Protein: Transcriptional antiterminator
Amino acid sequence: MNNRQIMILKTLRSKSEHIAAKDLAAVYNVSTKTIYNDIDSINAFISKFNITIEKTPRKGIIINDNNKFQKLASVLNDLENSKAFDPQVEDREEYLFKELFINRHKLNITSYEDNAYISEGSARRDIKKFEKLLAKAKLSFHRENGLFSLMGNESYVRKFTKDYLHSLIDSSNFEDIETLSRFFDLKTILDCKNVIIQLGKKYNYDLSQRYFNTLLIDLLVQINMIQIGYFLEPSKNSLSFDMNHFEVFFYAREVLTQLLKTKEEIPSAEIEALSFTLLAVGFKINNIDYNTRLNKSVESLIQKVSKILDIDLSHDLHLRDMLISHIGPMIFRLQKSISVNNPVVEEVKKEYSVLYNIVWLSVRELTEAFNIKMTDDEAAFLAIHFQIAVEKIHKPMNILVICPHGIATSELLISKLKRVISDTDKIVKADYEDLDRAKLSNIDFIVSSVKLNEVSIPVFEVSPVITAQEMNLIQSFYYKSLNNNRLAKFGERSELKNNLIRELIGENILIHSKSKTMEAIYEDMTKIAHEENLNNPLFIESIKKRESMGSTGVYTGISLPHCDPKQVTKSQLGVITLEQPMLWGKNLIKVVFLIAIAEEDIESTKQILINLYRKIEYKNYIEELWKASTAEELVFTLINWREDDVRK
Structure:
C-alpha cells in the first residue's frame, strides 16, 4: 500500500460513522474514482485479517467491525515500520529532479501520484513544467509503458543539472553544503571538498572562495554520473593534445581517480571536462601566446573604459592584475557555459548603471577575440573591478538629504541630484527628527528643505520643489569639491552618455551625400557600416525589410532605418546627411540616422537612444545636423544641441 492508502485506513479506523468518498477526495486532492480504487487496494490487503471496508450507496464508506481498532493497530504499525511504501514527496519539483536527473531513474507516473498524494492531472502538470525547461536545453522526456525517462546528449543533461543546482544555491553562502546535501550524500560532498584542498596544495592551486560552489557542483554531478554509468562523448577540441594544458589535465585526472577510488583509466573526455571547469575557476595557464593575447585584450579594455570615462586608469597596475586574474577564467567559463552566480548583479546594475553599461559596450572586442558571449553576472564582476579603481581616484561623496514634505518631493529632489553626481557617490535620506542620530562625520554636504541650526558641514537650504538656481549652486559646489576637472566629467551623467554616443558612432558618418534614391542610400550605408556587420549579407537586407513594413521617415526631416538586432554583429550608430532633401515614404528627409544595435546591447544603449529620440521631434535640431559641414561639427551638434535652442 502507498502512503495515501495507509492514511485513508487510519482515517476510517478512527471513524464510527460513514464518510463520503468525495470528502476523502477533497482531503487528498484526488478524484472520487481514485478514492474508490484505493479502497479496493486496501480491501485486498486487509482481507487476510478478516476486515472489510464497506461502500454503501448514499451513505459512504465505513469499516463495519467493532474490533477494528485493536485488529488494525498491529497491521498499521507493521506497515509504518516496513519499507513497503515510499516516503511522502514533500517538495515535488525537487523529488522529480533528483529521481530523473541525479538518480537517472525511470519515473512511474502512477507511483508518483500515489506517493505525492496528487491527482493524475497534477502529476502531469509537474512533468509538463520540467518539459518546458528541457525544451530550451535541447532535452526531452521519453515515455514508455507509463514510465518517464530523460533523453538527450549527456553534456546537455549535465549542464541542465548543474544550472538547476546553481539556481537553488544560497548565493551569500560560498560553501552551501546544506543545499547540496539534499541531493548528494554528505560524505561524498566532504570527500570532494577535501580532495580539492589537498591536491590544490600539491599543484599550487588556491581556489578562490567565490568559485567553490561552482567547482563542487561540477565535481559532484560528474562523479555521480560516472558512478551510475553515464559518460561524456569525446570532445572535438581535445585538451590532451595541447602541451600547455597538461598540468591541469594531470590535476583533474588525480582528483577523479581519488574520488572514484578506481585503478582503471578514466575516460579522457571526463578528465577534459573537469580540466575546463578548473580553468574556469582560476587554474592558471602557462602559455606565453595565450597570456600575451589576454594581456593585450585587458589593456585594450582598460583604454576603452578610460576613454569613455575620461579618466586615465592605464597606470592602475592593481586593476590590470585583477582583470587578468578574473578574465582568464571567465573566458573558459563562457566558452563552456559554466555558470557562476554573481549575488550583487542587480545591485550593480541599479547603483552603478552607467559604469555597468560602459563596461558592457567596451568588452565587445574581448568577446569577439575569444569567441564568447558576455553575461550579466560576468559584466557585473568586471564593473566592480572598475568601480574600485575609479573610487581610488575619485573618493565617493556622501550627501545627506533632509526633506519633511513627503515622499514625492524628497524623491524629486534626489532624482535631480542624481543627474549631476557620480555613480560612485551616495545619497542618504533622513527625516528632520533623525538628524541628531545621523552620523554627520561621514557626510560631505547636506541638502535640506528645512532650516538647520548649528551644523558644522556645508548645508544647502532649498525649496520643497528645488529651483534651477538652487540646483546650480549645489552643482557648482560639487564640482569644486572634486579632485580635478577630469573627474568632474565623470560626475556628469550626460557627459558619459555623450562619450558612449561617440563610441557608437565612431567614424560612421557621411556628409552631403549626393544620393537621391533609397537604393542609393542603402549603398551609402555600406560605407558607414562596420566591416563585421557587412560580413553578414542579411545586415542590409534586414534594414530593407523593416522599411518595407513601414517607412521610418519622420516629418521633421530625418529617417531612422534600423537593422534587426539578430543580424548585428557589432553595435553601431551612423549618420548620413544629404546634399538635397529626398522623399522617404511620405516625408521629405535631409538626414538618415542608422541604428544597428545587437541583441545583447539593447539594454545598455536604451537610455542613450531614448535621449536621441527626444530630440528628433524638433525640426530645428534636424536642420542643424543637416547644416554640419564636417563629421566633427555633426557629432558636436548631435550631442550638445538642447531643446532650449528652439526658443533662442
